[in-house]
Here is the input.
Amino acid sequence: MLTHIHPKLPMRDKAATLDFYVNKLSFDLAGADDYPYYLMLRKDEIEIHFFEFKALDPLENAGQVYIRTDDIEALYATFLANSVGIHPNGGLEVKPWWQKEFSILDPDNNLLTFGQSV
Here is the structure.
């Protein structure tokens, strides 16, 4: 049986990724171990892992994660209060597939889309 999923996304700079996810998105470190080329972060019931990819061209990065939430309005307001840039094509709206969604890009252009059923 499947129980959890922890997507792995590329990062160019561990310190920049850590700063963005902890200080802007309110994630915490997952686990006590610190690996030089790997990062594990947690927020509520999800984890996202990152692997170092120094040669990554952010303009060619196709990393994406869809994250479900049960209070999209509050999450959106928190991100705005933390000066998190909303993707220009990803503002908060109800989509034709009956999900209320918004999207952001992290420092490496990994696309994070947050959604809630309506």
Remarks:
- The chain has a mean pLDDT of 96.
- The first helix runs from residue 14 to 24.
- The beta strands are 8-11, 28-29, 38-43, 46-52, 64-68, 93-94, 99-105, 111-117.
